[in-house]
TrEMBL record:
Its main location: membrane. It is a multi-pass membrane protein. The keyword Membrane applies. InterPro entries: Neur_chan_lig-bd, Neur_chan_lig-bd_sf, Neur_channel, Neurotransmitter_ion_chnl_CS. Residues 14-113 form the Neurotransmitter-gated ion-channel ligand-binding domain. One of its GO terms (cellular component) is membrane. Keywords: Ion channel, Ion transport, Membrane, Transport. It comes from the Eukaryota. It comes from Toxocara canis (Canine roundworm). This is Neur_chan_LBD domain-containing protein.
Amino acid sequence: MLIALCNIVKSSLTDLEMEMRWFDVRLANNYSKSILIREMSVMEKIWTPDPYFVNSKYSYFHLVSFPNFRMRVSPNGLVTYNLRVTLQPACQMIFCRFPHDRQQCDLRISSSSF
């Protein structure tokens, strides 16, 4: 969701939900349904990627009163991790027909330690 768009400094502020998936065979189990992880203390014991936005001027993961995340572990060890992030991408924007123009801003995501 686009939160703000400024044609003076040619920048935007975006709020998004990021979903990451990976397999961790150590978490495979014999349950018939996925396990929902709601406690931060449990989630901290599970390996998670450490993503960052390469072309972002500013970004943060939401921790408002409680961390904004959802984690599920499937019986086969598939981990699905959703979290909320707000960012200001560093994209060149041209507003020659503002507000009727179209902007495209690719987000480049990388990992700090992988």
